[in-house]
Amino acid sequence: MSKVPMTVRGEELLREELRRLKSGDRPQVIQAIAEARAHGDLKENAEYHAAKEQQGFIEGRIKEIEGKLSHIQVIDVTAVDARGKVIFGATVELFDVQAELEITYRIVGEDEADINAGLISYSSPIARALIGKNEGDEVTFSAPGGDKHYEIIEVKYV
Question: Which fold would CATH assign to domain 4-75?
């Protein structure tokens, strides 16, 4: 499997979730299973079945995160000299020509994307149109609602 780009922040968040799952959630659910077993008959023990289901979810998420972490390429945008060019990890301030408003996006990995927080995946149509462009450039791309036109106001590497 090829390497998947991720920001430093994205990696930190994944590692923190993994730590929480392993050192907090996993021991709690093991304790809950032990307590439910102590209540006797497991066939009709809803607490036991709920705890086992939760354990399956936790173990699956741990495996998923460990798999992701083994295939990421962490890109520290602050260490890259891009000279005003839009790259992975950059924060881009844009002017929406049609709506006449300013918006800011940060280009991140797919697992980090959250449009409501201004984090867009590098594989999204807008990010693909922006990557490689410079401050002052105009960008047009096709979106589900029709063509969009933006002007790049500023590119930051934070």
Answer: Helix Hairpins (1.10.287)
* 79-156: CATH topology: Chitinase A; domain 3 (3.10.50)
Residue 52 identity (one-letter amino acid): K
pLDDT > 70: what percent of the chain?
99
C-beta separation of 70 from 62 below 8 A: no
Token pair listed for 148: 């969009």
Tell me how far apart the alpha carbons of residues 77 and 93 are, in angstroms, rounded to a whole number: 16
Which pTM was predicted? Answer: 0.81
Residue by residue, DSSP assigns 60-83 as HHHHHHHHHHHTEEEE-GGG---T
Average pLDDT for 88-100: 94
- Report the pLDDT value the prediction gives residue 68, as an integer from 0 to 100: 93
